[in-house]
């Protein structure tokens, strides 16, 4: 696992955006897996700035959604489909046709999960999956003790995750849905490159457990240790509990980060 420590969230966003731009130069129709929440926003802003400047071409890129709330009506501003349209597709000038994602408003949610797995396979698989991490170590909505071999499925959110996400629902936890569709950990691990971005002191313990702890279902993100190409990009605050922080800084002082993307 590569662990890259950057100065702050903006620097992390710039690094990841440049990595995506480089990937699209080599593979213009790459399927990019995107995450929602506040952490990846600097990535999307930095990538959009490159598009406007003419230094990145995303015209043939395809976008895949990581997860979705169950039960929100179509077009709800906090459905993850709406968030991806607003924060990723629109700023990058991509059409809805470039997007695939699970249907959280489907009557048969189990069938919607299976349909999304099929769609990812038909698209050739995810080339780069961007991930955030929860304070409890979850990735996507794979809460602690999720199976490390799990596939896209419906999950019940913990109260901690609902509380963390209440800020997107006017601070009211009662408005946060109790169920979600999420790519499973096994599904996530099939992406060719996993990029986990974490910022802020509140993520420090989860980052340390992910990078330095045992591979264990209690910290779902620790499954990234099993992946042949996983990159963890953290700011100084999120790196504050890493025992090997000095080693990681030294390693990337002597070669450019993000090699062999």
TrEMBL record:
The record marks 146, 153, 155-156 as: Part of the allosteric site. GO terms for biological process: carbohydrate metabolic process; glucosamine catabolic process; N-acetylglucosamine catabolic process; N-acetylneuraminate catabolic process. Pathway: Amino-sugar metabolism; N-acetylneuraminate degradation; D-fructose 6-phosphate from N-acetylneuraminate: step 5/5. CDD domains: GlcN6P_deaminase. InterPro entries: Glc/Gal-6P_isomerase, Glucosamine6P_isomerase, Glucosamine6P_isomerase_CS, NagB/RpiA_transferase-like. Allosterically activated by N-acetylglucosamine 6-phosphate (GlcNAc6P). The active site is at 67 (proton acceptor), 136 (for ring-opening step), 138 (proton acceptor), 143 (for ring-opening step). Gene3D superfamilies: 3.40.50.1360. This is Glucosamine-6-phosphate deaminase. It comes from Streptomyces pacificus. It catalyses: alpha-D-glucosamine 6-phosphate + H2O = beta-D-fructose 6-phosphate + NH4(+). The gene is nagB. One of its GO terms (cellular component) is cytoplasm. Residues 10-225 form the Glucosamine/galactosamine-6-phosphate isomerase domain. SUPFAM superfamilies: NagB/RpiA/CoA transferase-like. Pfam families: Glucosamine_iso (PF01182). Its EC number is 3.5.99.6.
């Amino acid at each position: 696992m590569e662990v890259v420590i950057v100065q702050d969230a903006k620097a992390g966003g710039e690094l990841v955006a440049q990595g995506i731009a480089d990937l699209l130069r080599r593979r213009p129709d790459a399927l990019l897996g995107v995450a929602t929440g506040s952490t990846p926003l600097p990535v999307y802003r930095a990538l959009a700035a490159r598009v406007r400047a003419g230094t990145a071409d995303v015209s043939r890129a395809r976008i895949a959604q990581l997860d979705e709330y169950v039960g929100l009506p179509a077009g709800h501003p906090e459905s993850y489909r709406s968030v991806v349209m607003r924060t990723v597709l629109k700023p990058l000038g991509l059409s809805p046709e470039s997007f695939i994602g699970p249907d959280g408003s489907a009557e048969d949610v189990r069938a919607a999960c299976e349909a999304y797995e099929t769609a990812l396979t038909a698209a050739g698989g995810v080339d780069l999956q961007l991930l955030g991490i929860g304070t409890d170590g979850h990735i996507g909505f794979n809460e602690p003790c999720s199976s490390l071999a799990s596939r896209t499925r419906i999950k019940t959110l913990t109260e901690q995750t609902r509380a963390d996400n209440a800020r997107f629902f006017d601070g009211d936890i009662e408005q946060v849905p109790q169920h979600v569709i999420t790519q499973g950990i096994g599904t996530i691990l099939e992406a060719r490159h996993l990029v986990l971005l974490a910022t802020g002191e509140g993520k420090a313990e989860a980052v340390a457990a992910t990078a330095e702890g045992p591979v264990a279902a209690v910290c779902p993100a620790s499954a990234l240790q099993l992946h042949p190409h996983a990159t963890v990009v953290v700011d100084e605050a999120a790196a504050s509990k890493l025992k090997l922080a000095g080693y990681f800084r030294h390693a990337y002082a002597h070669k450019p980060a993000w090699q062999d993307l």
